[in-house]
Specification:
By secondary structure, this protein is of the alpha/beta class. The chain has one domain: NAD(P)-binding Rossmann-like Domain (Rossmann fold), CATH 3.40.50.720. About 40% of the residues lie in helices and about 20% in strands. The chain has 11 helices and 14 strands. A 7-stranded parallel sheet has the order 3-2-1-4-5-7-11, sandwiched between helices. Nicotinamide-adenine-dinucleotide (NAD) binds next to strand 5 and strand 8.
């Protein structure tokens, strides 16, 4: 049985990818701080959960591992700006360290999930050879990690960089801070669909099930010479949307599914990020294209909302959750005495 080390395994993508890996007969070591809870991954005989910080995880974790999918990250732009230093440590340092340790311990393949957001702002359609334009801490740390990890590739250690499009769809660790998911929630809950100004910006999207299937396809692709040391954009040409157009599609679908009317609610300063991406390389080299469209994700999220399985809680907005955790951590440190707040450890004296 081959063993996959998945970091950030309890996150949005990890909690969809890990069950798929188990289903395909892999053993999985899931490493995560589990900031979003451990229950996102259901127990399985071939799943080992390890609560650990990837910046310092011990070397024995790497023993006997065949593949690494290094999902760990501070996972979006606003959180990257708010927690700048941690973002460099986790999105750059930790991944380079993990790749180097993987190589040292004889791991066969290392998959690095980067992001199409490193294209930043681009007038033309970009491919893997186009110059990048990382505009945010999140994008800069991803790009630096790509630059430091690709040279580790050699004939015994396959390195694949996957630049994911913005992901959408249901996951046990739900994220409503991703564009399609957030639009669907706003339209469904309040009849107001939040849309980032000015709507003309382009962005590529990919469904969470598709992106997980693509990762597995790369793990199982045996002609290493075609993928080793290579970068692949992950998504589909027809899933490059102009945000304003996408908002209309989501609004119409929510109206159709719920019978309620939906208005667009603009927010923010005009988005400086706009990129249209070519997905020819992934199609040509590993013969993969996404199966699902934006509409499939919207319908499935509506259904999960209507059944009450998911809702927008603070945990579903990454920036808000980490900010809240830090706030409570500081407050608790300040208030804690004798090992607790109200329940403390002490020896009662004679009265
Ligand atoms: N979701 C997207 O749209 C998208 C798009 C492009 C790229 N990506 C990339 O895919 C990866 C996964 O994204 P996601 O959406 O699942 O994010 P997520 O925030 O849901 O998951 C990240 C996980 O990492 C864990 N984590 C954070 N810091 C840690 C640390 N120091 N040690 C151990 N665990 C830690 C968190 O607890 C969380 O479970 C990231 O690398 C992200 O950059 C995601």
């Amino acid at each position: 049985m081959e063993k996959v080390l998945v970091t950030g395994a309890g996150g949005y993508i990890g909690s969809v990818l890990v069950p798929k890996l188990l289903e395909r007969g892999y053993k999985v070591k899931a490493v995560d701080r589990f900031f979003f809870g451990m229950e996102k991954l259901k127990p399985h005989p071939n799943l080992e959960l390890i609560k650990e910080d990837t910046r310092v995880m011990p070397e024995e974790i790497f023993k006997g591992i065949d593949y690494i999918v290094d999902l760990v990250a501070i996972s979006n732009d606003p959180t990257g700006e708010r927690f700048n230093e941690a973002t460099w440590q986790i999105n750059h340092y930790s991944r380079v360290r993990t790749a180097k340790l993987g190589k040292k311990f004889g791991v066969k393949k290392y998959i690095f999930p980067s992001s199409c957001s490193i294209y930043g702002f681009q007038e033309d359609i970009v491919d893997e050879n186009s110059p990048v334009n990382p505009l945010t801490t999140y994008a800069k740390a991803n790009f630096q990690a790509e630059k430091d990890i690709i040279p580790l590739a050699d004939k015994n250690f396959t390195v694949v960089v996957l630049r994911f499009s913005t992901v959408f769809g249901y996951s046990p660790r739900m994220r409503f801070d991703l564009a399609i998911n957030g639009m669907t929630y706003g339209a469904w809950k309040t009849g107001r669909l939040p849309l980032m100004r000015d709507g003309s910006q382009y962005r590529p999207f990919v469904h969470i099930e598709d992106v997980s299937e693509a990762v597995i396809k790369f793990l199982e692709f045996s002609d290493e010479t075609k993928i080793n040391g290579e970068i692949f954009n992950v998504g589909g040409d027809e899933l490059n949307y102009q945000i304003g157009e996408l908002g209309k599609i989501v609004a119409e679908l929510v109206e159709k599914e719920t019978g309620k009317s939906v208005d667009i609610e603009w927010y923010g300063d005009p988005d400086k990020r706009s990129y249209r991406v070519s997905f020819k390389k992934i199609k040509n080299v590993i013969n993969w294209t996404p199966k699902r469209k934006a509409e499939d994700g919207v319908k499935e999220i509506i259904q999960k909302l209507e059944s009450g399985e998911i809702d927008k809680t603070i945990q579903t907005i990454t920036l808000d959750w980490y900010t809240e955790l830090e706030k409570w951590y500081n407050l608790i440190k300040e208030l804690e005495m004798y090992g607790g707040i109200l329940n403390i450890k002490f020896e009662k004296g004679d009265l």
